[in-house]
Amino acid sequence: MNSNTEDLLSFIKINYPIFNTCYIAKELNISEATIRRMAKRHGIKKDPAYIKAVHESAIAANKKKYEEMYKTYNLTDIQRNIIVGSLLGDGSLALYGRSKNAYYREHGCVKQLGYRQWKQLNLTDLDFIISRKGKLSSPCHPLYTELYRLFYDKGIKRITPDIISMLNHPIGLACLYMDDGTLVIDSSYGKSTKYLFPRISLYTLSFSRFENEMLKEHLLKQFHIPFKLKERPDGNRFILELNQRNHILYFLELVKPYVSQISCMAYKVDLQNRMNEAKLNYLASGKVLHKNILLRYNEVKSNFYSEADEKIITKMKLMGNTDKEIAETLNRSYWSIVDKIRRMRTAEKLG
Fold this sequence. Notes:
By secondary structure, the chain is of the alpha+beta class.
């Protein structure tokens, strides 16, 4: 072996394991095939770390190319909350067969078609559609594949800190309530009086006790609503419940701006009529055993804002006051002010 061949082989031994063969061929001004033959003849192999790096680089390049094939969706906070609130309720994500990406889907009865149409309207720029049979669905997309990985474990829907952290706006809570919540009018009896009082339940029976506890703590921290855990004999045995008047009134005030937009769901926030109906139904039953019927609730505070209120909001925003400070000044809930400011900006009443 002459000195030139020895120098060539020495260069290959040092560089072949850790560098691209094309680069080495250019440096030596010989073909890649020649370098590979020499490496094979002398037992010179690529370093495992180099092989791993090349493999990972190829995967990343393919992933980038694959993702560039899909339309880019930029979810607003409102849209993310609608999707997450719905996935905690009746919505689901599906990943089938040869499809590389998941999609959102939601079925429901004909009576609730207006509700799904409301969702579709709010998610229209995400290309959500409603089929002839009334099913709401999205296109397959990496966005929903990522959500699928967060929401599902071996095909079973779950709750994790990453999931509930995305539920941070009342519209998401409203979707969870419209999907799985109910406003019930309960009763109790005194000697001569029948008491009627409201109760709100979130039927989160598909989740474990631990997951319900996690959701309960999040709703308290994020929305200041102290739901209680209640055990039942069905499903995974636990739901969330509100039964104190002030908590119920606050909850209804929080979700009413969104729920009241949907005629088929408005009954879930119409506390006054629901209480009156319960009273009339009792009187019409022919089994009136009590002289007095007491409706144990206060009317839900009106969500109406006067022109003077709007002027105060505008002035305080210009002065740099926080939404919390505005809420305290107007004696409103924080989320009521957040929603009012959003609506004022939509109506171009506030910059």
